[in-house]
Structure prediction request, 386 residues.
Amino acid sequence: MSCSNCTNESDGTPRGCKSNGTCGSDSCNKLTVFDWLENMQLAEGQQACPFVEVRFKNSRKEFFRFPKEFTPQAGALVITKVDGGYDLGRVTLAGPLVRMQMTRKKITEESEKIGSILRLANTHEINLWHELREKESQVQVEARKLAIALDLEMKISDVEYQADGKKATFYYTADQRVDFRQLIKDMAQAFSIRIEMRQIGLRLEASRLGGIGSCGRELCCSTWLTDFRSVSSGAARYQQLSLNPQKLSGQCGRLKCCLNYELDAYRSEIKKFPKPEVKLHTEKGIGIFQKMDIFKGVLWYAYKNEWMTWHKLSAEAVQTIIEKNKAKTSVASLEEYAEQAGIKENNTFDSGIGEDSLTRFDQPKRKQSFRRKRKKNYRNGPRKKA
Prediction:
């Protein structure tokens, strides 16, 4: 699937952005589904799925029932029936996987959310659709000006025109309830279309607009993530991350969804470690927890009033000291159980393909030749004898 700028050449290469279907302008990979049953034939006695999945602008997807004379095919532009007109979308999924997607989103075959496809889009309808898409950015700017003139505390983040040009949906975000009745009147007079205002959350806004995350890849919410689970600061604490809002928050201003990806693994591994609030009692002093490394299975403790000196202990050694404290057996010091600090770790970069040095692309310093060195000494003049 690709955006309107990525039409293909005769050899299959993209003609538009040259990004091979992974550009960021329209997010070609927004919530795409790989149809791994595309080349499979139906078993005997099974009927073909009469539904298809259609994507409209950005990440808005809906399910439709297609007529019997229509052959569903991924990538086809179809005309869908809506109230008071028609809309144009692209088929993103067809076949048995559509039923799985409907079950996943809890949509039954008799649901009213399932629309109907009228026909395939013709050239005139496609050209009109492209003209309206190019017009949306300018309409969004004008709508923001109208909202600012009315002192409305809202942000119009996106505009989506209906394919017939009779209606436009304005997506906005706001912290509080907004009275936009006068705004609708002004926009209807300025644009001469029917207006629909739809409020969305900050995460849904980021999924619609798309973008590049701090990891260097497209946002998860705009490419494959469909459900927005709550993310708490406890997920960062379990993973021993610094509670820095600038690093933990995504482009939506909320905590990153990826904090939940490895949370279950951290929770299962952290059960093997002693609790941080448990203190280690020794004859030399009381050891207080400072830090832990879940991957290496080690912890750092420091004596009370000696915070600058940390002692590295393994999880087994800490458990041994705790058991001795419960049995009221004396422990001389933490140094007896501390790991040897004399072993140096190899911190050189190794990618697994032979690139073991970060300076392999740097130009080596050339040794100064004898003639250049002699010429330099001649310019500086003869050396003075002491």
Remarks:
- The chain is about 25% helix and 20% strand.
